[in-house]
Amino acid sequence: MIDLTDQGNRYLYSCNNSCNVLQNSIVNCKMKRFLHILSITSMVLLSCNKGDMIKLEEDNGCIERKILRVDQHGVSIADIVTINNLFISNNIDINKYRYYKYDHDSVQTYFPPFARFDSKLVRVDQYANELRIFNAGRIFIFKNDVIDHIGGNATNGTSLNTNPKLKIAQVRKLFIDAIEQYDHKGSQYKDTCLSAEFGYYNLNAGTGNSTEVIIKAWRVTRKNSTYPAEYPVAYFRDDDGKLIYYFNGIIVG
After folding, report:
1. Do 166 and 241 contact (CB within 8 A), yes or no?
2. Please, how many CA atoms are within 13 Å of residue 31, restricted to the half-sphere of its CB?
3. Alpha carbon distance 30, 20 (integer Å)
4. Are 129 and 119 in contact (CB under 8 A)?
5. What are phi and psi of 125, to 5 degrees?
6. How is the chain split into domains, by residue range?
7. For residue 216, what are the contacts with CB-CB under 8 A and spacing of at least 6?
8. Is-contact 16 23, C-beta < 8 A?
9. What are the distances in angstroms from CA 212 to CA 139, 201, 235, 247?
10. For the CA atoms of the chain, what is the radius of gyration?
């Protein structure tokens, strides 16, 4: 007689074994696929990281990373109080600007009604994402404490992030090279300590085009030099290290 129970058990065992093999095959396939995707992702990330690195020469001499906040004004405390009062009374936001110059004078007109009036002038820096826009200065002129003229355009800000690509040592090398190119004095600055500030630069400023083209940039000067005696000063693009502007008080590059 044929033992149907035994044959049935063998059949079930065979089916279960086949299912296990199939399941293991599916699991192995999924794992291989996952590892393949992970490998591709790692290669993409590595490629992106390499793309973010700028291969430029470095100078490991003295240089500091300067951070200048919007509330670190360049005028006296007494002048800050005066400017704040002027701005508030004329509905100007005092939190948007860094004051770096203040002039107060009395002006006599030489035409009718031949009046004398009080004149106050304030020069300010503008900021975006808590970084200074180096060439977006504005001028506010007050006549008898009432706003009479505003020079410069208000910035619309930028969506650029606040992370630099260039290393501080690369920035120093770029500055020394610029001094050598325009002043032939690179060797005289090899032991000079420098100051580099990271921020933004509007490429359209001063061109007559009011549309902002803002890039990330570096502003470099001698350490502890202050406006207006801080020459030479240079600005460099952060994305490729190219010189934007160089000025030594006479020569513009």
Report:
1. yes
2. 6
3. 15
4. no
5. -100, 150
6. 63-68+161-247, 77-151
7. 160, 164, 165, 198, 199, 200, 201, 237, 238, 239
8. no
9. 18, 9, 17, 22
10. 32
Q: Which amino acid is at 147?
A: I
CA 159 to chain centre: 10
Torsion of CA 70, 71, 73, 77, to 10 degrees: 170
pLDDT tens digits, 24-47:
444 454 544 544 444 544 443 444
Cα-based angle 179, 182, 186 (whole degrees, multiple of 5): 30
Q: How many CA atoms lie within 13 Å of 48's alpha carbon, on the beta-carbon side?
A: 6
> What distance in Å separates the CA atoms of residue 73 and residue 98, rounded to the nearest whole number?
5
**Biggest alpha carbon–alpha carbon distance for the chain:** 135
Q: What is the pTM of this model?
A: 0.76
Q: How far apart are CA 81 and CA 121, in angstroms?
A: 14
Give the separation between CA 179 and CA 150, rounded to whole angstroms.
35
**Residue 3, pLDDT above cutoff 80:** no
SS3 readout for the chain: CCCHHHHHHHHHHHHHHHHHHHHHHHHHHHHHHHHHHHHHHHHHHHHHHHHHCCCCCCCCCCEEEECCCCCCCCCCHHHHHHHHHHHHHCCCCCCCEEEEEEEEEEEECCCCCCCEEEEEEEEEEEEECCEEEEEEEEEEEEECCEEEEEECCCCCCCCCCCCCCCCHHHHHHHHHHHHHHHHCCHHHHCCCCEEEEEEEEECCCCCCCCCCCEEEEEEEEECCCCCCCCCCEEEEECCCCCEEEEECCCCEC
Q: How confident is the model at residue 250 (pLDDT cuts 50, 70, 90)?
A: confident
